[in-house]
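Study this chain:
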Amino acid sequence: MNTEAQVIVVGAGPVGLTAASLLARWGIQTLVLDRRPEREGAGSRSICQQRDVLDVWTAVGAGRIAEEGVTWTTARTYYRDRELSSWTFEREGPLPPFVNLSQSRTEQILDAAVAAQPLVEVRWGHEVTDVTQDASGVSVRCGQRVLRAPYALLCAGARAQPLRQALGLRFGGETFDDQFLICDVKADLPGWEDERRFYFDPSWNPGRQVLIHPCPGGTFRIDWQIAPDFIPAEADIARRIRQIIGDRPYELLWHSTYRFHHRLADRMRVGRVLLAGDCAHLVAPFGARGLNSGVPDAENAAWKLAFVLNGWAGPDLLESYHVERHAAARENLEVTGATMRFLAPRSVEERMWRRAVLEGGRVAEVDSGRFAEPFWYVDSPLTTPEPSRPFAGRPPKGASCPPAPGVILPDAALPGGRLREVCRDGFLVLLGDMCDSSLFVQVLGKVTTAPLAVRGLAEMDGTGSLAERLGAGPDEAWLIRPDAHIAAIIPHAGPESVAAAVSRALGGSPDT
């Protein structure tokens, strides 16, 4: 049966809820289906949310995630009983670099944001078992019912293999043998509430790792790497916790075990169906690149689906979703794969090298996980390259990329708000002092019917310092996409050159 929805989102996890909320911001009616009878209320699960993900959630009315989460200040790394290193995140822009907050609480906040959107309907207890499509739309089967919409976005998680198979997709990769035991523990641990601790080969977990993260309300998330055949018993869990916290009182709130997976679907777009989050890619959690890559999937998919459905771009724009987010997933797999080879070496050579690094205190070579970062769409067909603004490559650990075409726009405080807040209502053209904004408005209004704003950099903060902070020249025009990525930086800019960049960013030919 046909629905009123323009997009069916399969999966009401954080990625699916984010996508539905973003689609609603663009005026797109969305139906969210989830196989579970109701929301699960326990367990930290994915806890670490990166700044640019917090930015997206703030845009959809879920800013409480950034407000309630804990931002630890120091990351300490130990080898056995010796501290190898400690370092601190630098705060860049108005939002914290990340927060720790349980996935359960994150989902509650996102549920509230979705409930406030009249264009989103969520149906629990609707397991999607099949998906088919034709030239005019997508059909999803839920039991005896078939629901239909023009497009579908699959955010159904790692266990969505039947849906991937229905689309003819492979989900190649591997699963690591070792398990991880995770526990949410409430305890009074003075000095630990603002530190993340990573232990290599401690005496109380010999040959393996332990990771401890602070969370709100005096709780801590503890991850132990454990043997493949280990079955945790209550007494063993208690013993492991005592080895870390001593004789202090504590409360075990939740525990579970899991294995790491390293997998990627061969396509993230199949016709009118897009895949996002764990449904499309699985990575080891060190570096928090799971949910922190799923949310950018959702944002990338949402603005492109909305532009196509609103008639602002042709359907070819959707292929850039696969191009951009598949490349981002491959980057995450490369980074997390290197981390897992260090954490769980599989060959004699890898084990010897790791031991030499740790015992030698070669801090620069210790890999406990490179933290999640926004991907750079440098090679995207939507990006207009500029030789004078080359991409500098993967930045040093903990650093941001200098602005360049394809890189996300740095955030900055503005009178009454933030720079990124004005980016998510459409395309944004930022002009240097030497550019006449009235000429650009006239020409660009004839190029596209998509939402597009033209703003002078000097007028945005009233001081002229924003251009200096961004490194923007007085005769430059910067074209910013709806997901805050820089589509073009054009020196000696004229309306025609910017119009060509807009056309390209909408999926048109680079020459149009």
Notes: The mean pLDDT is 93. Residues 7-69+99-172+262-338 form a domain with the FAD/NAD(P)-binding domain fold (CATH 3.50.50.60).
